[in-house]
Amino acid sequence: MSVVSIVFALIIMLSIFGGANFYVARRIYGWLSIFLPQINAKIYIGAYILLIFITILGFARSVLPIPVTVKNIFSWISSYWIGIFAFLVMLFLIADLVLLLGGFVKVIPKPMPSNIRFYSGLIVLALTAVTVGYGAYNATQIKHVSYDIDISLSEEMKIVMIADLHLGTTNNESNLAKIVQGINSLNPDIVCIVGDIFNDDYFAIRNPDAASALLKSINATHGVYAVLGNHDAGRTLNEMMAFLERSDIKLLNDEYVIIDERLVLLGRLDPSPIGGFGDLQRKETADILAEIGTSLPIVVMEHTPTVINEYGRETDLILAGHTHRGQIIPGNLITKAMYTVDYGHYQKDSDNPHVIVTSGVGTWGTPLRVGTNNEIVNIRLR
Q1: Whole-prediction pTM value?
Q2: Beta bridge partners of 374
């Protein structure tokens, strides 16, 4: 992508973001001016601009030369506000559409009475509060889902898969003990962590020693394996890899291991790392499969399901994450349109591998889950 294309895309995104903020700010002010006629417009505008500024700083915190405590405060404010803002935009748009249609069919009189505008705004704000509250609660819950997959194993084996921990983002570390407990309760033979263990910056983790100790306490008969996702990259890659090593997690960077002479576990580098993987380069899929040279079933760990078309009958099962299943509605509709499979079990036909895509066990961007769940995946291979 050229510099001109990047600048153009950035201008478009900032224009949409700015326009959406102007729309929300104006709608909230219109409601407040009915509820509180004495509201000072300059103070309101200043407060809203400050909120936007903190939101931007929160997402750029990793490069800011400010104390960690301040970074964490910015992160908390910005991550929650992004979720609140998304629902405000959607619900205000729906409310305005209803009011427009109501006026068109003459159910709502013209000019529109102030009490109708007031109650429509109140409904939007109340629904946003309820939705965000539910989303924050649901993001602390860990569901279990199970799949039985027949790949002609000589003996049954249980894989527990998780993805998208995003350690370093708001609230995700607080769920780590619950996640580890959930994994251990399933008595896995293998644990597969399919990418986005971190969230771009290793130093955003609030207590890396505690997080490492928890991950080290995962019990799996044949070990814990991981691959790097698109967020497990950049300037702190070395620190991320050292963290995984001291957590007793075997990182497979376009490498494979044979598990108990029963199956091959292949871990792939993500094709689109944010900030790069340094000297590590993703191999051609055909080349790495040719290196394996065994008739044992092959299980592939790929962070993203965008690459499943690179595999055929030579592989048996692909494990992926990345999509979060959209995380909050209507994001699930977007991911369903973007990916061949954005969630669950999929097999194109008998000549192609099984694919299991998880919605992830953590959140990204905003610490909310609405219409989707954090999950641990239990896979029984036969």
Answers
A1: 0.91
A2: 142
Question: Where residue 3 falls among pLDDT bands split at 50, 70, 90?
Answer: low
Helix axes 68-104, 114-138, angle to 10 degrees: 140
Q: Buried b vs exposed e over 334-365: b needs ≥16 C-beta within 10 Å?
A: ebeeebebbbeebeeeeebbbbbbbbbbbbbb
> 164 and 179 in contact (C-beta within 8 Å)?
no
Q: What is the pLDDT of residues 254-292, one digit of tens each?
A: 999 999 999 999 999 999 999 999 999 999 999 999 999
Tell me the residue type at 290. A
Beta bridge partners of 301: 267, 319
Residue 74's closest CA among 87, 86, 56?
56
- What's the CATH superfamily of 143-381? Metallo-dependent phosphatases (3.60.21.10)
- pLDDT tens for 228-261 read 999 999 999 999 999 999 999 999 999 999 999 9
Domain spans of the chain, in order of start: 3-138, 143-381
For residues 339 and 263, is the Cβ–Cβ distance under 8 A?
no
CA distance 32 to 198: 40
Q: Render 272-341 in DSSP notation, one character per residue.
A: S-TT--TT--PPPHHHHHHHH---S-EEEE-S-GGGGGG--TT--EEEE--SGGGSBTTHHHHHHHHSS-
132/18 Cα distance (integer angstroms): 22
How many angstroms separate the CA atoms of 261 and 130, rounded?
A: 52
> Cα angle vertex 369, ends 364, 370, to 5°?
135
Contact 197, 232 (CB under 8 A): yes
For the stretch 338-360, pLDDT in tens is 999 999 999 999 999 999 999 99
Q: By CB neighbour count within 10 A (0-12 exposed, 13-18 middle, 19+ buried), where does 270 fall?
A: buried
Q: What share of the chain is helix, strand, coil (3-state, %, to 5)?
A: 45, 15, 35
Cβ atoms of 188 and 380 closer than 8 Å: no
Beta pairing, strands 249-251 & 224-227: parallel
